[in-house]
Amino acid sequence: MLKKKEKKDYVFKKLDELLKPQGYKAFKTGGPPTYVLKQKDKAISFSLYFKDMGQIDISELEISLFCVENYIIELFGKEYITEHYFYDEKKIFLSTVYDNETEPLEGLYRGIGYDVKTQEELETFTDWVINYLKTDGQKFIETYSYLPNILKRMDELLSEGKYWGDILSGGPENLFRGLIISKLCNDIHYEDKIKYVDKIFYEDPDEWIPYYEKLKERLKSVEPKYNI
Predict the structure, then answer these.
(1) Is residue 11 part of a domain?
(2) Of 29, 150, 151, 170, which residue is least crowded by CB atoms under 10 Å?
(3) Which residue range(s) make up the domain with 110?
């Protein structure tokens, strides 16, 4: 059976060859190994998990769009964000969207991982990750780095009877991200989205209400980035 170090050495070598020329930085210690591409307007990241039972797991690919997340940080405060989300502006960013739709490798179960005992299984997993990053992963990055495309997907999800949480990151705060994106896109259905979120929060009031009311007030002065 392969040792954990052998698995890490092989996976890191292959991913470094692909990602470092693109500008990604690899953080291989101090938590789960994470690859991050930080650009002027966004950060792209994913993490790997090498488990003691032999599995290797991979997180969803995530994009942090600073034009959205700066409002989330402003809303909650940097101290709260750092404490609750381990945000550090270097390795860990607040996620705006995540890839929830790409079909995983057969045998890869999120939260459990892909069982890797042999070199062949290790190569199968690594080849899948590399192919994903070159194809569906790259398409996800190109599509959802553009706010109007996120808004379009949000509207599609609602029309399908689904939730923004299928594309937007976070628990209840995914609704905050949805309204911020709607306002930044000068969405003609912005007021309808406010009513939609009002219904969710006010029908079962909880500790999120003060933040939600603060957000709505702040959004009144937010200038759109796009006119769609």
Answers:
(1) yes
(2) 29
(3) 4-61+99-143
